[in-house]
Amino acid sequence: MRPITMLSILLTLILISTVAQAQDRAFLFTLTTPECREQPMLVHYDTAYGHKTFEPFGGDDLEQNLGLQANFGKSLSLIAHFGLAMDNRTTSTSQHVELLAHLMKAEDHIIDFSAGAGVRHEYSDTDVLLSRFMLGRRFTSWQSYSNLLLEKPLSSDRDNIDLMTTVGVSYNISGALRLGIEMVGQDIEGFWEENEAEGGAVLFAGPTVGITLPWIPCTFTIGGGPIFRASKSSRTSQAYRDIPFKQGNGFVIRNMVTFGM
Questions:
Q1: What is the secondary structure of 79-131 as a DSSP string?
Q2: CA 141 to chain CA centroid, nearest Å
Q3: Which among 14, 55, 186, 242 is least surrounded, fewest beta carbons within 10 Å?
Q4: How far apart are the first and last CA of the chain?
């Protein structure tokens, strides 16, 4: 990344921190419903390093991500982020936006349930239509959420529909420390479709640690773990995509700084 670009990001984060309050976000890849009405917006900055990765981790080597979740009352949330991926040869960008409707809340029902739609522009310049379903529940110390994401790539060389699912469970040990585990599955239709175009189902599982310090107006979350190629396809797409088909297993390490405003 050029120094002027990095400087701009750092100045933005410094400006945010002067008006922000600490806000925890338990998971790295699993979205949850809004928890704090006094902070209608979350801003996060992520960095990740991976090998043989897959969406939503971004490309191999280094990825950076700047995003927000803006909550409009109890009913709607706008999710948006901008990604920058860098490897030894290229630097590319991606954009992502979703609008979610919160259809059920745990204070009125047994569970939280949200649904929405959006679009992602991938690092490979492919546009992907998105539909998301979010289900979960918060307890006094525990919270557990899952997302089901249906992806419709606007490309003839990709699968007609890709399925991604995420599951996260988190336990609040104290006001400053949270531990959990998160699991992600991409192209899970590869378990029953022998000709899945992206090479078969891929799985990730790993721990997450969240730290909130009262004298710093942000929350740090870090996690990572192995990536498994869980199934093999009889064919693979020949088109370049941001996550090309890779043989063998990999890993990812990701950290996130979150501000509540």
A1: EEEEEEEE-SS-EEEEEEEEEEEEEE-TTTSSSEEEEEEEEEE-TTS-EEEEE
A2: 23
A3: 14
A4: 28
Three-state DSSP class for residue 13: helix
> Is the pTM above the cut of 0.85?
no
Q: How far is CA 236 from CA 35, 67, 100, 177, 201, in A?
A: 41, 32, 33, 43, 12
DSSP letter at 135?
E
Please tell me what DSSP assigns to residue 187.
S
Amino acid in the structure at residue 113: F
User: What pLDDT digit, counting tens, does each position of 169-201 carry?
Assistant: 999 998 789 999 999 988 766 655 655 455 567
Q: Among 129, 150, 140, 168, which residue's Cα sits nearest to residue 32?
A: 168
C-alpha distances in Å from residue 190, one per residue of 62, 89, 222: 27, 30, 29
| Angle at CA of residue 113, ends 143 and 65, nearest 5° | 70
pLDDT digits (tens, 9 = 90+) for 189-233: 665 565 545 556 788 999 999 998 777 778 899 999 988 876 555
Element (DSSP H or E) covering residue 12: helix 3-19
Length of the chain (residues) = 261
- Amino acid sitting at position 176: A
Q: Write the Ramachandran bin of 49: left for phi over 0, alpha for psi from -120 to 50, otherwise beta.
A: beta
Contacts of 76 (CB under 8 A, 6+ apart): 99, 100, 101, 102
6 vs 95: CA distance, rounded Å:
18
63 vs 48, 227, 246, 255, CA distance in Å?
A: 5, 17, 18, 11
Q: Which two tokens stand for residue 239?
A: 């088109």
Judge whether residue 132 has pLDDT over 90.
yes
Per-residue tokens: 66: 């700047």
